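Q: I'm teaching a short session on how sequence maps to structure, and I want students to see two examples side by side rather than one. Could you give me a first protein with its sequence written out and its structure tokens following it? Keep the formatting plain so it prints cleanly on a handout.
A: Of course. Example one:
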Amino acid sequence: MLRFRTAFFLLGAVALLTACRSHSQPSEAWVGTWATAPQLVEPHNLPPPPGLAGNTLRQVVRVSLGGRRLRVRFSNAYGSSPLVLKAAHLAQSLGGSAIDPATDRALTFNGQTSVSIPAGEHVVSDPIDYPLQPLSNIAITLHFGTVPAEITGHPGSRTTSYLQSGSAVDAREMPEAVTFERWYVIHAIDVVAPGAAAVVTLGNSITDGRGSGTNKQNRWPDELARRLQADPQTRHIAVLNMGIGGNCVLRQCLGPSALERFTRDVLDQPGVRWVIVFEGINDIGGAMGGLEGALAVADSLIAAYRWMIEQAHNRGLRIYGATLLPFEGAFYYTPERELARQRVNAWIRSSNAFDGIIDLDAALRDPEHPSRLHPNWDSGDHLHPNEAGHRRIAETVDLRLFMD
């Protein structure tokens, strides 16, 4: 009996000591500073020769928020077999394929420099101390082992990536590299930044950056990040771009539907506090069955928005609705689909269901022809804004939405 009591006392003491240590060393509060929405890469967007297996890929991203400690997330969400990273490095980009060698750091995974990412899974690097500056360009360089036939990535990078044969993770430059505008495997960068929070922009090709400039980092979420960093009251806010080109809300078009990916791409992002929903025009553009079919899609979109609002509120998030841009002249425009767009926008404006409204339709339409984009903001396809249009979208967002 004495032995039992002594053992019980010791177990209790250990538990108390563990609890005290846990209380005195709280877990780090992470917030995303850059992210992209993973999707199954279509065959025509797969890596060009020499391919990923055995070779080195350098990819450049623009972070929004700074910090002094970071981690990087990698995804094999759509692979049917493990993906092996033999090495992963992070460094300050100097433009093109060049990096600043003084800032180059090797990433580890549970203390190891290599990692195998199981099929359908993601991995997070060990945290490292790193003086990350806001709005800086960061190069993530990966040396691959075996890779699955199905690649997880993000084709709409609007940023040049560099693929070179063999191992070159710490190369200062890659002058012989094959270049293309796609991201593979990289998913997010998180930082420890006390008091910081993130806004997630959920959308389709407009949010993904169609119409913005290659390597200019001037998608409308990038422009919003610049505005937030320029204002002392919002300098603690990160912007996470979860746009997918060709994406739909209600069904799978390109990438998983917004409904399917809402938890992963929005609710589960570290430090998220606000959401901007700017998506639905591809659903309307694909509506069949004349006016009745178009209005049915509009009603289904409204129901989907209500579901997103409920899910966001259940997590304590504020969620803002952006009205859909005019699209007369685009390849899938019809008068019936325009009426569906008007129904959705009228609901966004009048229902008070969202916590706030960002009226992009009013900001970018042609006053003399309201069903068309203003020529100043039109990329030429009458669907996607040009670079000035992306700035216009960002300027329309009231920063007071993030000052609560």
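Q: Perfect. Now a second example for contrast.
A: Example two:
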Amino acid sequence: MFASHRRDKILDLLQRDKQVLVKDLARMFNVSEGTLRIDLRILEDEGLLERTHGGAIPLKLQAFARDSRDPSRSQLNFEEKQAIGSKAAELVSDGQCIILDASTTVLELAKSLTGHNYLTVVTNGLETAMTLNQNPRNNVILVGGVLRVGSKTVEGVLGKEILSGIHADLFFTSAEGFSIQEGMTDFSLYEAELKKLMAGNARQTIALVDHTKLGRRSIASSVAFGEIHALITDKKADPAFLKQCQRKEVLIAD
């Protein structure tokens, strides 16, 4: 079990039992108590729990979310995001170079790729990078930039030089909105500019968008509709909208 999955399980146990003990977790996951103490320290640093002598307890009013910028963001349509991420993983082959944005949907793709080998992964997502870096057969490149306040996202175009030297097979990206007219759109101008650079350095751009974002638009355009090669969405997607995307490859995640 990868460390990121183990920490997710710890949070699930903590939400259910309201307390966890290092010695019990060590037996459960078959790892050392020292490893579990590191896990708890990392989760505490992320604001997800409070360590106690020998274990941990929930923070008061803790929502058990992974994105402190919006405590509910990572949990919105979580099952759909998981299904989309799993479907997207089917498009990735061992040995490819891929670019991943820092969205919560693409993070679910990263979790589905932990068994893939010899990938070169370029990303601006700290958690995405840490998830895939646990497989020593993968090469993970973190794009430099400004760490967005209260999040695990690096944004801005300081990593332009890194991206300019990379020729990726696939770029996987999500957005706040996806429309025929504006394509992929986001709240942050800096995030949108970085995604434009990412798309420009990949042979194909794959949009991972759950049904709630279809037909919506936000402030800043990142990838134009005409530059998107395939759309992966969930089974709740509006058929009328998908019909407008008939020129694109559309994959529906179960």
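Q: What should students look for in example two?
A: Point them to this: The first strand starts at residue 20 and ends at 21. Also worth mentioning: The chain has two domains: 3-57, 73-253.
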